[in-house]
Amino acid sequence: MGSLEEQKVISGSRRTRWPDIFKLGCVLVRVTVGALFVLAGATKAYDPGAFAIEIQRYQLVPWVLAALISVYLPWLEMLSGALLLLKRFERGALLLTTLLLLIFSLALASAMFRGLSIDCGCFGKAFTATGTTIPLLRNLLLLVFMGILWIKSR
Predict the structure, then answer these.
(1) Does residue 3 belong to any structural domain of this protein?
(2) What is the number of structural domains in the chain?
(3) Of 21, 80, 81, 152, whose CA is between 20 and 30 Å from 89?
(4) Are 89 and 83 in contact (CB under 8 A)?
(5) What pTM value is reported for the model?
(6) String of DSSP letters for 52-79
């Protein structure tokens, strides 16, 4: 094989590395976000009463609505996370997860700007109090990850 042919083979293999790394990164992001949503939903579904109290601390909805949200939202989170993990209904799972992250981020930002000193309630009582700033930053990072998954899905 001549040097020109060798260069084509080498340059061709270099071109395929970045798409492979991007695909691997997307798989890792999808699995990470999916697992986080399954975990977050499961910890809240375990004790919906405590989750309803966490929702009420945001002072955004009346108690009855907080109680309803505390029963159904964890299952919606687990469903969206499981669909991401299994790569089923991918665009629907991406849409649902992105919308949930946007709503959670808006609620956290609202609590932060109103000076509420609350725990985010993101993972129920499974983890210690984290306030609102760190969870908001985490959600913004997860939204960036979701953007990457949206780009990949096109």
Answers:
(1) no
(2) 1
(3) 21
(4) yes
(5) 0.82
(6) HHHHHHT-SS-HHHHHHHHHHHHHHHHH
